[in-house]
Amino acid sequence: MSTAVAERMEPQVPASQPSESAAILSLIERMAVNPDIDPERVERFIELRRQMARDDARAQFDASIAEAKAKIPPVVRNRKGHNDKSYADFAAYARVVDPVLAQHGLSYRFRTQQSDKISVTCILSHKAGHSEETTLAGPADASGSKNAIQAIGSTLTYLQRYTLVQALGLAAADDDDGAAAGAGDLITDEQREQLLAVADEVGADIPKFCGFFKVPSIAALPAQHFGQAMKMLEAKRK
User: Fold this and answer.
1) CA of 207: how far to CAs of 2, 70, 129, 145, 196, in Å?
2) Model pTM?
């Protein structure tokens, strides 16, 4: 399979800065009607404002992704696949991921294309206007006794699942083994909230914190590491 990652932006004025935006727009309007102002200077000013809006939207997107990933719990494997191997289907991911993304102004949709291969692009967007794309492509899944349409449908759902996983930076182990199967050995919801609360208080870098324990999110932290994790956060407070 081939992989490509791209970014796309729709310039928007951040809603969090209405007074600043109004002031800048007013200035642009005055410059535009002033015969003594070089039109190219007005254009440069407008482009500068657009770039500021893009940078602000990107920053909001990155912050929301980091916060959302820290709250996404493990996805329970609910299907049996090739060689009786367990996996989580797209619906299982959507049930877990969708509510968390919505809390942080994030959403996703898919775009598909077909030539010699089937291509699926997951477009992950933030309410501020920034979006990023993750694309995977592969042949129709003709395994088993599938007809031509079923083969295409199987590949589409497979690629939707994995482009979403890639777009959010979730660990592949969530889908194949480990954390999802051993959900009973993970920290409880109460412990997760405790860690998130302390992490927020001490200004911890959550992605880096999760990286130390080699888990995709705090919710995926094994219960045996809860004490160590709490001590690390408290040490940062001191």
Assistant:
1) 27, 7, 23, 43, 12
2) 0.59
Parallel/antiparallel/unpaired status of strands 130-138 and 86-87: unpaired
Between vectors from CA 109 to CA 104 and to CA 113, what angle results, nearest 5°? 155
The larger pLDDT score, comparing residue 200 to residue 238, is at 200
The position carrying tokens 């480990």 is 178
* Nearest-10 crossing angle of helices 189-202, 39-71: 140
Lowest-pLDDT range, 34-38, 47-51, 131-135, 165-169?
34-38
H-state helical runs in the chain: 18-33, 39-71, 90-103, 148-168, 173-176, 189-202, 206-213, 226-237
| One-letter amino acid for residue 18 of the chain | P
Backbone angles phi, psi at 186, to 5 degrees: -95, 170
Cα–Cα distance for residue pair 168/24, rounded to 1 Å: 35
CB 101 within 8 A of CB 164: no
178 pLDDT more than 50: no
Q: Which residues contact residue 6 at a Cβ distance below 8 angstroms, ignoring those fewer than 6 apart? A: 132, 133, 135
The set of residues, in sequence order, having a beta carbon less than 8 Å from that of 123 and lying 6+ positions away, is 8, 108, 109, 110, 111, 131, 132, 133
The residue among 215, 96, 208 whose CA lies nearest residue 161 is 96
How does 214-227 read in b/e, with b if 16+ C-beta sit within 10 Å?
ebbbbbbbbeeebe
* Confidence band of 74 (pLDDT split at 50, 70, 90): confident
**48 token code pair:** 């500068």
